[in-house]
Amino acid sequence: MVFTFNLGFPRMGANRELKRLVENFWSGKIDENTLLIDTKNLREEHWLLQKNAGLDHIPSNDFSFYDQVVDHSYAFGVIPARYKNLNPGLETYFAMCRGLQKPGVDVAACEMKKWFDTNYHYIVPEFEPNQQFTLNSTKVIDEYKEAKALGIQTHPVILGPISYLMLGKPTKDAPQGFKPIQLLNRLLPLYEELLSKLVDAGVTWIQIDEPCLVLDLPSTIKNEYASAYSVLTKVSPQLKILIATYFERIGTNLDFIIDTPINAIHIDLIRAPDQLEPILKRLPAKVSLSLGLVNGRNIWKTNLEVAIVEAQKAIDALGSERVFIAPSCSLLHTPHSIQSEKKIDSEILNWLSFAVEKIKEIVIISKALNNGAQSVRKELEANRKSIQSHRNSARTQNPIVQQKMKALTPDMFRRKLPFRERQVKQRKKLNLPLFPTTTIGSLPQTKEVRAVRAKLKKGEINQTQYDDFIKKEIEKYVHFQEEIGIDVLVHGEFERNDMVEFFGENLQGYVFSGNGWVQSYGSRCTKPPIIFGDISRPNPMTVEIIKYAQSLTDKPMKGMLTGPITMLQWSFVRDDQPRKDTAFQLALAIREEVHDLEAAGISVIQIDEPAIREGLPLRKEDWSTYLNWAVDAFLLSSTGVDCSTQIHTHMCYSDFNDIIEAIQRMDADVITIENSRSDLKLLNAFEEHEYTAEIGPGLYDIHSPRIPTIEELKARLHAILKYIPKNLVWANPDCGLKTRGWPEVEAALKNMTDVAKEFRAIDANC
């Protein structure tokens, strides 16, 4: 018989219980004991839910207070020296994630990066050449025992040694040429020790995630994989090891593990359906195959009939006892359940499947394979009707949008003049000083702001009362920005719940969940809107509020928009047309908004694209196709303006060397980047490729509550000037300030503007 297997479950809870618990702990509202007890209850709830659904293989250690990679670092004693004097346990753990400021202590957080091509972020491990590994935590064992006490035999999930080392970075003082993979032989004995302890606790299966197996890897890494898994498979004959890959095809990297005595491999058949047959031909006789047939990264129902046909191919080749049915990846990337959804109309809701429902789909597929389709006849018929309803619905098509797509011309993808000529016109118009200061867009969304928005949604206040409140907030903080000397102002985005959701709510072709939250990092969750049909803009979305903000000041006020690729990446996207087509539809809608903002007198317009690097395919051979249409989408959204209108964009954590030519082709006048946690290494790309437009490398980290000192801001700006000419440098935080509190924001921005003023004065006296 085939078995069901889950790679991971969303950890936040049906109503974001984990978010509230962690944030209450940070703010001192609950103590550590309460945090531990309540999160234990949450884990138990999730295990029982999966057991009751009928899953055979249920994961443990997929829970985390912040991120599974930092859990791994803490567990293996990979704790940077700057945290060594902190209290062991949660103080050290959360300091690695968020930094820590208290009397006598001021430490910055570890670097944070995107997890492959998702919007999830992980904390980057830092390795010393003489790194000493120790088993510093029993979390993975403890959580296995918790589930076992409930009568649930789980398979613990850990990050594999090769991927763990490859996802890390050397410490600042490491000698040139040192690579963390060189530490493998030091690390493996700790893996052996951990696996031995798990076996002693009763573990029979373990899931070892090796997501780096889907990347372009040098052939030399084969020896490391062979070495690692030859060692780990010898820990105990009672322990079975499944290596999990996801997000792409494993391809020729299968060679790295095919000859090791592992027990099973998981492959992603949503992102890479064509890999099934080649792998079936090569799989050793004693190795099982886990089929990722249910999409772990999108929210549309699985076509169960198609999935069953694919699974049958594996059964025919391997036998049913060697086949697992699974999601494509961990369900961490999907919302909890549709059960609480009240906002989505019944037709579209019938097309959707969140994590709880995806587990049910996995079980239905296995029952059909084990017991025949008749055993789940009603479920399959209901699924067939949902798929047909989605496929045939007239709501997904808009003839006007289709006509606009056919009318695209080459001139709509380029600015009228090159950057240097535009720069002259913009400087004359804007009259900005050296080292102009700005923020990325959002200002703190206080409890009061959120409470007033909630009252509007509940009908306790009307739209006029809400608008009046928002205008007062804007006025207050426009004056604050003027007082501290910000040069290009923002209105604060107080009216926006989320940088993607807000625009989606004002576009046709979107629908919104009420509780479809997905973890982005730590306690930060997003509620991705759902693109179900053709995109169009029925009315201006931001013009009136930006006009109002501009009326309060003589300084430039930025129009703030979210770019088409970020709208695409941070939404759940329709799967019935190419992503390129959806991106271009989004770009046309944003282009219309840009035109209306300019017509309203707004001379600086920011089109955020923090997710453009995130969307880059994991295999280099696929890059050019994506980058061509992704950059074209940005150009389509941004090029319809006069040359004196300054176009900004913003990008999040990115390895810019990978895409610097594409960034140059975007032809933005100013780019601001998240840079503060990267030790300035991101700027190498801009220097090496002689990037000529203006750039604002983030001066301080907004994902941490600590306030940067004037001294460190000065040191960082000095360092930036080693890479970027002074006449191109902007001073700004590294991201939006929505999640921060006003006291820290006021202090940090005041320090930032004071530093910019000091650098101007120094330059004037030279």
TrEMBL record:
<feature type="domain" description="Cobalamin-independent methionine synthase MetE N-terminal">
    <location>
        <begin position="5"/>
        <end position="309"/>
    </location>
</feature>
<dbReference type="Pfam" id="PF01717">
    <property type="entry name" value="Meth_synt_2"/>
</dbReference>
<dbReference type="InterPro" id="IPR038071">
    <property type="entry name" value="UROD/MetE-like_sf"/>
</dbReference>
<feature type="binding site">
    <location>
        <position position="650"/>
    </location>
    <ligand>
        <name>Zn(2+)</name>
    </ligand>
</feature>
<feature type="binding site">
    <location>
        <position position="493"/>
    </location>
    <ligand>
        <name>L-methionine</name>
    </ligand>
</feature>
<dbReference type="GO" id="GO:0008270">
    <property type="term" value="F:zinc ion binding"/>
</dbReference>
<feature type="active site" description="Proton donor">
    <location>
        <position position="703"/>
    </location>
</feature>
<dbReference type="InterPro" id="IPR013215">
    <property type="entry name" value="Cbl-indep_Met_Synth_N"/>
</dbReference>
<keyword id="KW-0862">Zinc</keyword>
<keyword id="KW-0486">Methionine biosynthesis</keyword>
<dbReference type="GO" id="GO:0071265">
    <property type="term" value="P:L-methionine biosynthetic process"/>
</dbReference>
<dbReference type="InterPro" id="IPR006276">
    <property type="entry name" value="Cobalamin-indep_Met_synthase"/>
</dbReference>
<feature type="binding site">
    <location>
        <position position="119"/>
    </location>
    <ligand>
        <name>5-methyltetrahydropteroyltri-L-glutamate</name>
    </ligand>
</feature>
<comment type="function">
    <text>Catalyzes the transfer of a methyl group from 5-methyltetrahydrofolate to homocysteine resulting in methionine formation.</text>
</comment>
<dbReference type="GO" id="GO:0003871">
    <property type="term" value="F:5-methyltetrahydropteroyltriglutamate-homocysteine S-methyltransferase activity"/>
</dbReference>
<feature type="binding site">
    <location>
        <position position="608"/>
    </location>
    <ligand>
        <name>L-homocysteine</name>
    </ligand>
</feature>
<feature type="binding site">
    <location>
        <position position="570"/>
    </location>
    <ligand>
        <name>5-methyltetrahydropteroyltri-L-glutamate</name>
    </ligand>
</feature>
<keyword id="KW-0808">Transferase</keyword>
<feature type="domain" description="Cobalamin-independent methionine synthase MetE C-terminal/archaeal">
    <location>
        <begin position="435"/>
        <end position="757"/>
    </location>
</feature>
<feature type="binding site">
    <location>
        <position position="652"/>
    </location>
    <ligand>
        <name>Zn(2+)</name>
    </ligand>
</feature>
<comment type="similarity">
    <text>Belongs to the vitamin-B12 independent methionine synthase family.</text>
</comment>
<protein>
    <recommendedName>
        <fullName>5-methyltetrahydropteroyltriglutamate--homocysteine S-methyltransferase</fullName>
        <ecNumber>2.1.1.14</ecNumber>
    </recommendedName>
</protein>
<feature type="binding site">
    <location>
        <position position="674"/>
    </location>
    <ligand>
        <name>Zn(2+)</name>
    </ligand>
</feature>
<feature type="binding site">
    <location>
        <position position="608"/>
    </location>
    <ligand>
        <name>L-methionine</name>
    </ligand>
</feature>
<comment type="pathway">
    <text>Amino-acid biosynthesis; L-methionine biosynthesis via de novo pathway; L-methionine from L-homocysteine (MetE route): step 1/1.</text>
</comment>
<feature type="binding site">
    <location>
        <begin position="440"/>
        <end position="442"/>
    </location>
    <ligand>
        <name>L-homocysteine</name>
    </ligand>
</feature>
<keyword id="KW-0479">Metal-binding</keyword>
<feature type="binding site">
    <location>
        <position position="19"/>
    </location>
    <ligand>
        <name>5-methyltetrahydropteroyltri-L-glutamate</name>
    </ligand>
</feature>
<keyword id="KW-0489">Methyltransferase</keyword>
<feature type="binding site">
    <location>
        <begin position="440"/>
        <end position="442"/>
    </location>
    <ligand>
        <name>L-methionine</name>
    </ligand>
</feature>
<dbReference type="GO" id="GO:0032259">
    <property type="term" value="P:methylation"/>
</dbReference>
<feature type="binding site">
    <location>
        <position position="735"/>
    </location>
    <ligand>
        <name>Zn(2+)</name>
    </ligand>
</feature>
<dbReference type="Pfam" id="PF08267">
    <property type="entry name" value="Meth_synt_1"/>
</dbReference>
<dbReference type="InterPro" id="IPR002629">
    <property type="entry name" value="Met_Synth_C/arc"/>
</dbReference>
<feature type="binding site">
    <location>
        <begin position="524"/>
        <end position="525"/>
    </location>
    <ligand>
        <name>5-methyltetrahydropteroyltri-L-glutamate</name>
    </ligand>
</feature>
<keyword id="KW-0028">Amino-acid biosynthesis</keyword>
